[in-house]
User: Fold these one by one.
Assistant:
Number 1:
Amino acid sequence: MTTGEGTVRLRPPNNTLDPRAVGWWRAQWLLLTAAPVVVLAVLGALIEPARFWLLLPAAVLAVLGTGCAVLLPAWWFRTHRWEVTDEAVYVRTGVLRQEWRIAPMSRIQTVDTVRGPLEQLYRLATVTVTTASAKGAVRIEGLDHETAAGLAERLTRITQDTPGDAT
């Protein structure tokens, strides 16, 4: 990353997400899987001539969705990392295709903390760091809600003390 003073070297992000993120991701998968499975199963129970052609995809979706809910969240947990330094906030996400997102402190415009219903159930939160980047905000999902609040406060304090980048 290049700043007005030169190049800043960032080490790989070290912080992991909260372990409860695995359960949160599993719940999301199961809910997304359950909706079409229930619709197909109900239709299959009601429509005799199409029963096989409705129950078969319901069963396939149920097996695939459950398999994804069991395997993927643990894999994601091992690969998602985040870090905050005095110069930048950055995340590494992705399993097969890893992506690093870096937001220099001088470019941060807003810091938001969001807690959806499932996140609240798991006592988690998402911190969204918005910059002027066309690529969009940097999101750190799956944080303990108290850690997220502290991080948002810390980022706000650091960005207030960081002079804006004129470029």
Note: Residues 1-5 have pLDDT under 50 and may be disordered.
Number 2:
Amino acid sequence: MKMSKSFKCLSVLMIAAILVIAGCGNNNAKSNNAGSGNAASGNGTDSKAIAKIKERGKLLVGVKYDTRLFGLKDPASGNVEGFDIDISKAIAKHILGDENAIELKEVTSKTRIPMLNNGEIDMVVATMTITEERKKEVDFSDVYFQAGQSLLVKKGSPITGIEGVTKDTKILGSKGATSIKNIKEKVPGVTVLEFDNYQDAFSALKAGQGDALTTDDAILYGMAAQDPGYEVVGKPFTDEPYGIAVQKGNTAVVKAVNDTLAELKANGEYDAIYTKWIGKAPAK
């Protein structure tokens, strides 16, 4: 009887231990499954962004309507054309197989991130500089256009770059622009005349009120396109890398964009688009 009782007690203890181990195993499995579920959910959410675009059948892209060469709306035809538009069409072709499967929506520097994050657009392709501050709000693609501060001068000017600017040079710029601060740091003592906007500054340059106009070269290229008597000179002397912005965490969309950019550069289409709008091949 004693052995029988001991055996029974041992059996009960063994069964209890097995149940505890099984219970722990189930809890671990649940925990692991939950982790996998979260990862899958994250991937699912990520891939859903691409799936949503495909289900909709068109890519919604935020672009500028007022930036010559990059995104400019023709008031007569209503068409929006420019470097950013051609890049956007290439992305639509990569994702949807049709460059015309796209809807362009106007954004400004102020509205582009809010419109992106509230779901009005899938991405922003609008001369948007990649900055650490912006990375806190959105994710960026690889650099698709390397911009920087440059100089616009009348053709034949002795100024061929920042090295030709002295304290006796009269520079034109826009009030409140960082380009004013930059040029003063580059050339201490330089004379700077500030205007309310770049168009007024350009008019002043053409009227002979200054020797050069300075700002982001993307803007300057547009001005040069307006008047062939003026040209952008020298290498950029600040770094302004443009990126394509998507909602934070949408890595599948970022990958689709980066894959598109890689393809365009590999097959020569990027150089063709660049030359078409900027008038020269990109620097290598």
Note: The longest strand covers residues 138-147.
Number 3:
Amino acid sequence: MESAILGSFISAMATVLGAAPIFFIRKLSEKWKDILVAFTAGIMVSASTFGLMPQAIKESGMIALTLGILIGILALDLIEKNIPHIDVENDSRVSSFDSKSLLVIIALFIHNIPEGLSTGFSYASENQGLGPMVAISIGAQNMPEGLILAVFLINSKVSKLKSFWIVFLTGLMEAVSAVIGYFTASSIENLIGYGLAFAAGAMLFIAYKELIPESHGHGYERPSTYSFIIGLLAMLYISHWFG
């Protein structure tokens, strides 16, 4: 339990680590943003395909895998349709903190819930290496997201320190949901396989719906593609290392 709480907290606080550069920079170049986002997509696809899905089959079988993935995808799809994510290209031009800025912050809180649940479900698995692997995967996704949110807030005339604390709170929501996911999966028999499949579906949705398209929209498709492959291979090595 201690390792699950610690791993979930570190993964969630990667959002804060990602926001740290705001004290030194104000603008993130499109090229490096695309490369970072594509690298993250590779990590998430690798973790879900080679880590979460095989373990979900082992825990609960193919039916659980299918249902869990579909539920994860549908859950993220509903969130996306009803609660907007940050549109970096457009929202970075916001000139003042308004109701739209507040909506984006609320959206980040809600978006972080399924990500936290994914980490918690993974730590509840009998595969002890799966939790750290998924925590690394989610944490890698959180770092550029934290930086993007922080830059957005600064461009909305929020102070750097206040922006940093808002990012911290969004990360904290993920840590709380991770603990909830861990205890829920641990206390309900046969739920772990469904939870792992849910996590896989959620991560694949994030990668294909958000990260990959976002990394290919500014003319840096080639370096982004290489970055995606490097991220996928990096997670394979991490998966092999954790066994």
Note: The chain has nine helices and no strands.
Number 4:
Amino acid sequence: MSFHAAAFIATSLDGYIARPDGSIDWLTSRGERAGNTGYDEFMTSVDTVVMGRNTFEKVLSFDFWPYDGKQVEVLSTTLAPDADERIIVHRTLEGLIETLNDRGAKRIYTDGGRVIQTFLRAGLLNELTITTAPVLLGAGIPLFGDLDQDISLTHNATRTLKAGFTQSDYTIHR
């Protein structure tokens, strides 16, 4: 692969990225109190965003499109190919990878639980930044799912943010 794929995501302390219904109110109600998470700097470093249908639909509920100037790819078997002119819909991981390589994508932001899990299982994810919110949800959509094998990580740093948030950065070994 000629591209570098990174995940930058928030979880509850018990490892969920959303409530069972997909709501992220637990994060949006607290997130600003965390202070500078490095997200803006991270976003300036990426040229492409890859997400799944659920994440795409969540983004559509925002009052603004957060990916101006970025190529946005959506991996989905159900989203209509012409769902939105700002995105390209891919049915398969192979088709997505072919497009990323053909277009010369350099640094990719992988967003959403299923896409992150898919990239992890396929050995395509290079780095992982997890911001942990000081809340327990008890149930929801997990960041990580079943794996065929262990995935070794190198812990690069953990920093304490404001309001009880922490953030850890890892390099993923393939």
Note: The radius of gyration is 16 Å.
